[in-house]
Amino acid sequence: MNYTEDTLVQQTTANYLEQQLNWDSIYAYNNECLGALSYGLSFYALEMVVRVLVLELIPLTAALFVAVRYSIPRGSELYKQRIRGGFDTLSHQHKDPIAQELLPSVVAGVFAVLTLAAVSCVVALVLAYFMVYGFTTA
After folding, report:
1. What are the C-alpha distances in Å from 54 to residues 6, 73, 113, 127?
2. In 10 A of CB 75, how many CB atoms?
3. CA 18 from chain center: how many Å?
4. Which of 1, 55, 81, 125 is the most exposed place for a label (fewest CB within 10 A)?
5. 74 CB-contact burial (10 Å; exposed 0-12 / middle 13-18 / buried 19+)
């Protein structure tokens, strides 16, 4: 028996199995439903994407991004300023170094994390909506 694509391997094999072994062949091509839909998990898959991305990963990524790009370098600058006596200079000028230097950096870091997380979550939700329902103008 010649098992090549030219002689339709699938049909030939099915005929052989049916005639020689009395097996029933069931063709599932173009009838199968693969993925989350076949198991009834599409609703849960979307829910998990929203929960994991929007509630956990995106805010964590935003916080890490702000920490690495802004807060850690700014903290290093403040430490160097303190070591060089910049805080003492501000104290002699009757200015509070914490209120003058540290507080604005902390507020800016918190604001950056919240803003970046909110924008990222909105983008993720919009993309999830388009993936589920498609782009419609109606």
Report:
1. 51, 27, 14, 11
2. 15
3. 49
4. 1
5. middle
Helix pair 103-133, 58-66: axis angle to 10 deg: 150
Rounded distance between C-alpha atoms, residue 68 and residue 46, angstroms? 31
Q: What is the mean pLDDT of residues 91-117?
A: 86
A 10 A CB-CB count for 30 gives 5
Closest by CA to 116, choosing from 63, 45, 48, is 63
DSSP letter, residue 4: S
Mean pLDDT of the chain: 77
Tokens (6 digits) for 73: 């370098």
Q: Give the Å distances, CA to CA, from 125 to 15, 74, 88.
A: 51, 32, 48
Side chain identity at 100, as an amino acid letter? Answer: Q
Q: What is the DSSP letter of 85?
A: T
Q: How far apart are CA 55 and CA 117, in angstroms?
A: 10
Alpha helices in the chain (DSSP H): 9-21, 42-49, 58-66, 72-83, 86-92, 97, 103-133
pLDDT of residue 6 exceeding 50: no
